[in-house]
Amino acid sequence: xxxxxxxxxxxxxxxxxxxxxxxxxxxxxxxxxxxxxxxxxxxxxxxxxxxxxxxxxxxxxxxxxxxxxxxxxxxxxxxxxxxxxxxxxxxxxxxxxxxxxxxxxxxxxxxxxxxxxxxxxxxxxxxxxxxxxxxxxxxxxxxxxxxxxxxxxxxxx
Length: 157
Prior knowledge:
By secondary structure, this protein is α+β, with helices and mostly antiparallel strands. Helices cover 41% and strands 32% of the residues. It has helices at residues 3-12, 15-31, 33-36, 43-49, 57-67, 82-96; strands at residues 75-80, 105-122, 126-140, 146-156. The longest helix has 17 residues, at 15-31.
């Protein structure tokens, strides 16, 4: 099942039926974590936080430049590794999805941690790039799809 199919059922029935499908969806995505983990994230989330291949400072800066209109707007972005994104899906599946309700909710991750590159931009003042290792909080929207990730603790490398 892909995300579009899951969300089409959200409009068709009540929360209990949808919630059963949501749990099945996360189990399927978790079972195929290397190829399907992106299905558990909103497109906007992936645009902001994910990059193809290896996470580098240059890729993080490229994302920040685009999203900040080449440094003319305040912007902050945290880029994380694909392995971390897959680990977040596994932890959401094992710890949170069974109890997730029909509203936005934030959860503190215990097991999923990893490398990150954080870029801050102050309008027309330049970019500050920090690389480190962190633990995270994850947010699930009203449909149970991951749409938020923030570092809950951060160690500079």
